[in-house]
Each structure stands twice: as structure tokens, then as C-alpha cells.
Design a protein that fits this description.
2 copies of one chain form a homodimer. Chain A contains 10 helices and 10 strands. By secondary structure, the first copy, chain A, is α+β, with helices and mostly antiparallel strands.
Chain lengths: 313, 313
Amino acid sequence: MAGDTVADWGEDRLVAAIRRLIEQEQGKPAPPTIHLGDDCAVLPMAKTAQQLHKTDCIVQDVHFLPDTEPELIGRKAVNRVLSDFAAMGGAPQSLLMTILVGRDVSVDRILAMYQGALAAAHVGGAYIVGGETSSLPSPNGLAISISGTGRLIGEQAFLRSGAQPGDGVWVTGDLGNSFETGWHLSFQPRLQEAAWLSQLPPDIRPTAMMDLSDGLGQDLPRLAAASGVAYTVDEASLPLREGASVQRALADGEDYELLFTAPAAAEPSLAEQWNDVFPQIPLTRVGAIISNDGETPVSMAGGFEHFANSGRT
Amino acid sequence: MAGDTVADWGEDRLVAAIRRLIEQEQGKPAPPTIHLGDDCAVLPMAKTAQQLHKTDCIVQDVHFLPDTEPELIGRKAVNRVLSDFAAMGGAPQSLLMTILVGRDVSVDRILAMYQGALAAAHVGGAYIVGGETSSLPSPNGLAISISGTGRLIGEQAFLRSGAQPGDGVWVTGDLGNSFETGWHLSFQPRLQEAAWLSQLPPDIRPTAMMDLSDGLGQDLPRLAAASGVAYTVDEASLPLREGASVQRALADGEDYELLFTAPAAAEPSLAEQWNDVFPQIPLTRVGAIISNDGETPVSMAGGFEHFANSGRT
């Protein structure tokens, strides 16, 4: 059994094993799991008036390597989606996990990947309620797509489009060097932190937010463009992960930290309150939002570009 | 511009082009599209007490070929998910579309694929509300994952687990030869037909339902196993697509027809009523549900096995 390939087992046996694993890990019947194994998951209605729905995927040789520990692959696949829920001020509820897998991939590896995914979902307060499997033409190829629904913590979702001139620009945690330090696999999505931010009074509450997946150098320009504003960044203020340069903090990507803007009134009270609640996690004001003056915001150097002709792809 | 690759354009330009296309095709603001471009789609609440959530994917060289017309690829990706909504007695509402794409794939091809996806969503009454892009290590690789949410038409979802001894086994449409005839690309998901079935009175209403994606020879055993029953199939009764043998009708897969069981009382009134409403689409009783007697149901030969050691993979 150890070392069996997907081809050895066949689809039904694999799916049955995954289902057993899910029921074992989540309990049965696990809310909101109903009718696992039917063509669609049937979900109890959320109590809020708006629902979040998100999909994401990670691919071998792009987001992880063939020798990456499979539990960490599953964990990363789920936590990337949870990080997006956090960025909106939301809480994840149900997840669907699709795996695309070459015929020579071992069943052990896939099940271990699900273990990691289930553990991450549990920590994040979400349930895996179904999914799909498909073959890939590359015999050892592997990709995972996660789709999730969730609810808002507060009344309003945090959007990219709410930044105003005069706002400060803030980031949680440290930036850069995510691959070398393993952070891109071991990060914790900032769900609790975002939930706390979403309950702040309006005078210091974030005006715009997103998560840092492609690096501050790419993501801040996107937030500014969505808000129709420009920005300045104080490079000396950037919180650097161990071993990271300013350039790497701007360019590396996969930080999975929160990037947000907040009214000037938030300084310094926001950071003081934050430090009381989350003393282990830095919160840093790294710049300011300025008016656009009709010009395209100046883009900082670097950041992760999925399809660039040079650099990581 | 024509012939540009994904690498030529970069991610932001590609995403902006896709977003323009979506807004152009669906109108703006298109319900339920809110905040396209943020980390999650924000959806207005459905009015029903249960929601459907489904994910699926199609992969080049598995579900389509490098020279498949891109509009048909997008169409197939969406319609496979819509077929699953139909199978549950549901109506799709919002879709997220994730593309995994190698750097040398042309932008024209991707946008044409989105055109096909948007057209299929429109016909099915659904909206594409967001998505994700990722690179693939294979330079010409392509895969599409679609995630959807939807609502139920009737009070109860059709499940695989409701079949009872004495029920008839029914299929819509014709079976087999899906690849050779192009049906696997051009099929119409049976949404209207399933909605009609879901509103039938209990004495003739389907007791279990699924869509035929891996062939009757694999899918009927799955339905029977979920219901704890066995079955008989009258091979002479199978509705054959042009050029298909009985063996192909059992084994080919990708029929995207409805497979359901219904009480004995449904015969012959169900077929008569069906023919009045859907005169162009065959409805055929192909077998019966029998008691299991504690034995594993006998599996028919064939059907599509994603990871089989022989045959199509």
C-alpha cells in the first residue's frame, strides 16, 4: 500500500479514502457537511446578508516543489484562500478541494496533502465539504485548487477601493525572504487579526485592505489603482524578515500579510491597541496615501509577476 | 497583439483584459457581481434556505486537445459544472473561473476561452463573478477550474442515495461516442429538464439523480452503492448515440445526461409528460433497482476511469 500510485488505486478508491479521511478528521455529520459525495455540496444558509466566495490554486514547480512535504502543500493551498478571506474581513465556512494529479503520484502523498489541508481548515474554522479529482498529462504533475465560501465578520467587506489621500499605509508581520525561510509554507492566515480590524470604530478602521501575495511592490500599486490614489513608501520603515533586504521586501511576494490603509487618526492609537491584542505580530506604518493628480501611480520596483519574461515564473 | 503570449502581456494586463471582457459581456454592474477584482467575490444572499457549491476542472490532453477551439474549451468548463447543478435539481448563480496556463499560451486563446465560458454561463443563467490565474510549468499547458454556487429549484436536492428497490432507472438523451461526435464539447447541461423533474409530484418524482460523466457503466454502480441497492440494466434498451455500440454506451463517459431513478408508478406517465415538454430529447427507462441482499452490486463493464492503468486516462 505504501508507495502505491494513483493509477494503482483508481479514482473511486482514492475518493473513498479521501472521504474517509475527511469524515475522520471533521467528524460525521460535520456541519456544514451534508451529502458528501454528491455532485454538489449542499450548504446550510449563512446568517449574514452577504457571502464570500473565493477560488485559488497552487501548482507544483510554481508554488511548491516535488520534494515539498505534502502536509505543507495541503496547508498552503488552504491557507492561501483563508488569507483572502481575512483580507476581506471575512470568516471562511466551506471549502471544496480539487486536485489535478499525474498518474504516477503516490496515494500516500495525496492523502498526506489532504491531512495538511484538513488541519489548516480546522485551525481556520472552515470545513472541506467536497471536491473533485482530475488526471494531469504530466505523470508526476500536481496542482490543487481550493474554492471557498464564507461570511463577513463586520457589516462591510474590506475592499481595495476605499483608500483616501491622507490615509496611512500599514502592513502586518514582516516582509521578504518568504521562500528561503519556508514562510510561504508555514504562514498563518491573518483571520483573527482581520476580524479584530473589522470591528474597530470608523475613525481608525481600515479604509482598504488586501493580502500581500505578490509583494508590496506589486500589491500596493494595485490597491492604489483600485482606489484612484497614489502613495509614498518609507523604505527605511519596512519590516524585514530575517535576511531580507528592502528590495526583497518589496519584490519577493508570498508574504500573506495584511496590507491596509487607515485614516490619519489611527496613528498612534491603532498600533498601541494592536500591540495589546497581538503582541507577537508587528504592525507597521510603511507609507501614506496621496492624491493621484490624474497620473498613474509610480510603481515600485519588483514584486512577483506570474507570467514575466524574466525572474520567477 | 494577435499571437501575444501570456508572458508578453503579464498578469495584470491579462486580468484587466479578462475583466473588461466580463463587464462587456455581462453588463456592469451585473448582478450578482460586486467588487470584481477584490480578493473574494461578495455575493448577495440567495433567497432559498440551502445553497449549492461545486468545483470542477478540465485539463488539456485529458478533457480537450491543444487544437480544440478555445470557445468550446471555455464552454465545456462551465457546462460541466452546470450539469452538476442540474443533477442536484439546482440552478447555478455565481461562478469563479481559475485558469492555470503555461507562459507560451496565446492571450487570444485565453480570451476566446473566456468568451465561450461567458456565453455558456449566460445560457445557463449564471454569472462569472471572479477567478484566479496561475502559471503552469509546462510552457503550453492549460487547465481550467470552475467553482460555482447556486440554489435549489425545489425543496429538496436530488441525491445519489435515494434509490429504492422497485424504482425504474432512467436516462435522458443518448449515450456513447461523445468524443468522436464532439458531444463532449457541444452538450447542453440539462438544467431545464432537471428543474422540470424537481417539480413533479412525489409519486413519480425521481428518487435519486446524478449526471453521467464517467459512463453508465461506472456511474450507475456509484448511484447504487450510495443508495445501498443493486440494479439490472436492459442493454437492448440503451439509447445509442450515432455510431455507438452498447459497449461504448456503457463505457465512453462524458455523456452529461441525467441518470435518475423513479418509482414504478412513473411508468408510463413520466415518459408521456416528458415527451410533451421536451419532444426533442429522448427519455428512456434502461433498467430497474433491485434489493442488494448484502452483496456488492455487480459492476457493468467499462466506464471512464480517470487513473486507470489501461484505456483512456
